[in-house]
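DM between two lab members

TW: hey, do you still have the Contactin-3 entry open?
JB: yeah, one sec
JB: this one, 347 aa:
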Amino acid sequence: ELSYAWIFNEYPSFVEEDSRRFVSQETGHLYIAKVEPSDVGNYTCVVTSTVTNARVLGSPTPLVLRSDGVMGEYEPKIEVQFPETLPAAKGSTVKLECFALGNPVPQINWRRSDGLPFSSKIKLRKFSGVLEIPTFQQEDAGSYECIAENSRGRNVARGRLTYYAKPHWVQLIKDVEIAVEDNLYWECRASGKPKPSYRWLKNGEALVLEERIQIENGALTISNLNVTDSGMFQCIAENKHGLVYSSAELKVVASPPDFSKTPMKRLIQVQVGSNVSLDCKPRASPRALSSWKKGDVLVQENERYCVVQKGGDLFALAFYSDAKVGFRYEMKMQLHFNKMQGVQRPQ
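TW: and the structure you got?
JB:
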């Protein structure tokens, strides 16, 4: 992050830029389109850090006029021009320089090669020697022309601006807790130019793929989860201009049914002929299998009794109450323990 200026003879007399004099902020060079007697003197280059404001001065360079003749008129000669191809980042400020020597002093104009008009945000600086495009977007990409013209002729410099964008997140991954034996689908999505590619890490190392662990278009799927799948995961989206990370924790839980935090009501009073729903939501990983008993008799589903799963581990027994009240209903929970690790069968 450097800026350039030139001292004329002694500080603080700096060269004032105009249609005849130009200082390139790309190279630091000073250009004078048509030298006049008032330009004779010593020139010193000044380089300043825009971050620290530290300043360095070069050695003085004298400019003298030759006495062996006078330079006649000639057509413009473009000495400062932008590259043939210049990548520009999304949202950046792009500055294109163009300056020509000539006698008479050339006039600088700009246009797009495709004939499209300039956006209203585009500014011309330094007597049209600099074309400035703030907040560069994809529609600003294309070919640009700098035309230097005087009474002796014209010259044209061309260059192409290409658009690129570092990856940025459209969808991040978030912490998730899933029961053992369930399936995981984790999707991270990023946009960028060119289109980002994806890779995944687990606990800081490249994720090892296998039959039940697959990655497709940035989405991670793990089937038949087990406790060892738990860990910190990172999804990385990258293109040649940069990369971004998204991190989240996967917890695979395995536990027998537990009613301690979600107990059933011990007594429910209802009117004869009304509808009744007995809710039951045990904590269990993997999901528990349920059965209901009325007294010692297993409840069978029929036109009056229906067991409904309302989501997660919530099961409800719905029925019409009959004239007999005071019966005790029990819910019996059973678990599949195959492939579970570190979990004891409930007594």
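TW: got it. Confidence is low (pLDDT under 50) at residues 320-347. The longest strand covers residues 153-171.
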